[in-house]
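[Automated response] Your request has been received and processed.

Submitted sequence:
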Amino acid sequence: MKTAEKEQLIQKVENGSVTTPKGFFAGGIHAGLRYSKKDVGILFSTKPASVAAVYTQNHFQAAPLKVTQESISKSQKLQAIVVNSAIANACTGEKGLQDAYEMRKLTAERLNIDENLVAVASTGVIGEFLQMDKIKKGIQELQYSSFDEGAKEFQEAILTTDTIIKGSCYEVIVEGKKVTIGGAAKGSGMIHPNMATMLGFITTDANVPTPLLQQALKEITDVTFNQITVDGDTSTNDMVIVMANGEAEHSPLTENHPEWHTFKEGLKLVCEDLAKQIARDGEGATKLVEVTVKGANSKQDANIIAKKIVGSSLVKTAIYGLDVNWGRIVAAIGYSDAKVNPDETEIYIGPYLTFKNGLPQPFNEEDATEYLKNEHVEITVLLSEGNEEGKAWGCDLTYDYVKINASYRT
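Generated structure:
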């Protein structure tokens, strides 16, 4: 889609949220799982919605994921998501599984809907049991609304070590009607999808059948959430869920619908926004690092190289230390499995060409160091293998990351 066409059909909704699409409600409450912050949240559609989901590839999948996958498999629809922070309910055996089922049951009763229309998500410390008395009371007392406050409460309730709430919203035009896509996410550490310790919840009033929505989410996840990394660790709990309730009242989208790609682009923009916010809010991070690789032999090669660079601890520490060390970028490119010709590769840090034709290039070190002080640092790699492009996002690696994770449970 050309830029001018995209701007005409797709608009960012400033201050939009998961409750901006028609028919969605949200809320959050402090149930007592955390010392003082909100820790139980709910997201609710007025009617069952088409659903798509992707899950962590960690072998140790937490109980809530198993329950959620069961719900979606049975119903092929979803109407509500209940989330708790503080405790991950992972590696908790049969009791943990029963607790996740109990969360699903309590939420269904609270909303007067079928249990198989409820997804369950948890995030926090692994290996501890949920305090079900507090969760039960929290779900029973939860209030939800379609207003901004309800969305904000939900966004706060899903956080762990995050320093900011994360949200995004776009509006697209389908058959002359406004279709809105809103998202909320959490994630700060243990970020290295496929998937990582992150939760993403996306709502839309579009009319999209479940199989097509699932196909779109899978494709989009591969170039957004799966292209971020903070520390190379993957977690046990993480998922992204999309609910599409059809309240925009257009005809069902299909791959042959003239506005299908417009909707898909809007969904991609929401996912990319959330992914970048997660990367920027990496534990202890001071900068968002964006790597673009052009001229690759395939999209897969471009994505592999971009993620190797942004995931390199040496690159991340160099950026934190304001060290224009292009050699670390060369090393990261070199140990990727992608097709690369070192003698026909260019590396830019911001606007500064640092490497070309197998040789270092002259640049103003002081100016380049000053550039690294920006909160958004861009690295660009130009290859000579083809015409494909890929991106990845991450952050710098700081002393505070060690402090946060050294005392996570204390």
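Summary generated for your ticket: The first strand starts at residue 10 and ends at 12. DSSP finds twelve helices and 15 strands in the chain.
If you did not submit this request, please reply to this message.
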